[in-house]
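2024-03-11 09:14:02 INFO worker-7 job=invfold-0412 stage=load source=structure_tokens
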């Protein structure tokens, strides 16, 4: 069996076209959705990420502001900027690109962002809302993974889902979103003794580890949905995920490629979150 590809670029395009329409409608009502992105320091990967986020806003009719600061920026100065953006009516979402320089406490920074502008969904308030099933802004990457799984048309309810990884930004919120969609969820991590025992029993596997070839063909149940969040480099320096794509696609029913799977959906769901923060409802914006 060769798996069907879950095309994150095509799904992104579809959701983004709706984002563009909703953004235009809000703009016509005098409420153009606005995202502020803050970058501290000169990490090259972070610079690419923020550029792509701002570009996506521009392409879909959202207002965006990119603030770049030297790595030596004082924590108090960053907190003061966030306070100003919290009070800025043209800004509906605030994103501080991680990682931050070591002298800045990321938890303090995340906590400083107004709850209704926390478009990354990383605050304790947003995490608590997800945990308790209350409405709120969901972290973009797992939110995008849910849309990718839903796009297969396979019902999530009653399925066994295995999430590999338990980070606060991907693994844990992913597990909670799947649980909210009525999957039976197992969360694996670095201290899980036999990963394959769990993944072989899974109808849905989400790999969010950061180590290539974590999931191989022998670890996958025939027909399973496999979502690859990982971003790694192979021996040739090319981008690859956590999943042995060539092997696993011969066993799985559905699989996301890397690149072209989860990556584009992360930015797309950031746009959806910014619209939601600005007061819009979208068809995409319904994950829990
Ligand atoms: P992270 O914070 O480093 O978390 C990695 C998780 O993997 C941890 O929970 C860790 O377990 C677990 N792990 C490590 N080795 C393992 C093993 N051998 N078996 C099972 N679990 C293992 O990383 P993250 O931020 O969640 O990101 C994960 C990956 O997704 C990275 O490659 C990252 O670049 C990528 N990512 C992609 C996107 C995108 O848009 N495509 C967005 C975010 C992240 P412990 O908790 O026990 O240490």
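2024-03-11 09:14:09 INFO worker-7 stage=emit residues=288
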């Amino acid at each position: 069996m060769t798996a069907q590809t879950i095309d994150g670029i095509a799904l992104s395009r579809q959701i983004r076209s709706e984002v563009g329409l909703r953004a235009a409608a809000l703009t016509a009502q005098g409420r153009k959705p606005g995202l502020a992105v803050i970058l501290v320091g000169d990490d090259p990967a972070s610079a690419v990420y923020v550029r792509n986020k701002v570009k996506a806003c521009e392409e879909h009719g959202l207002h965006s502001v990119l603030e770049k600061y030297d790595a030596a920026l004082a924590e108090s100065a960053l907190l003061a900027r966030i306070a100003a953006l919290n009070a800025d009516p043209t800004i509906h979402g605030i994103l501080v690109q991680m990682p931050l320089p070591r002298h800045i406490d990321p938890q303090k920074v995340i906590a400083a962002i107004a709850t209704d502008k926390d478009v990354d969904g990383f605050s304790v308030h947003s995490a608590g809302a997800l945990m308790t099933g209350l409405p709120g802004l969901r972290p973009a990457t797992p939110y995008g993974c849910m849309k990718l799984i839903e796009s297969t048309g396979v019902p999530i309810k009653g399925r066994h889902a295995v999430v590999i990884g338990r980070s606060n930004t991907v693994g844990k919120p992913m597990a909670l979103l799947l649980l909210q969609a009525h999957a039976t969820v197992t969360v694996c991590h670095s201290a899980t003794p036999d990963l394959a025992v769990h993944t072989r029993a899974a109808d849905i596997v989400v790999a969010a580890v950061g180590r290539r070839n974590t999931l191989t063909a022998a670890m996958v149940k025939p027909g399973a949905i496999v979502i690859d969040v990982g971003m790694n480099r192979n021996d040739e320096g090319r981008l690859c995920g956590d999943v042995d794509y060539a092997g696993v696609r011969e066993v799985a029913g559905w699989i996301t490629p890397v690149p072209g799977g989860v990556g584009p959906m992360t930015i797309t769901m950031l746009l959806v979150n910014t619209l939601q923060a600005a007061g819009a409802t979208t068809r995409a914006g319904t994950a829990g």
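2024-03-11 09:14:09 INFO worker-7 stage=report msg="The chain has a mean pLDDT of 96."
2024-03-11 09:14:10 INFO worker-7 job finished
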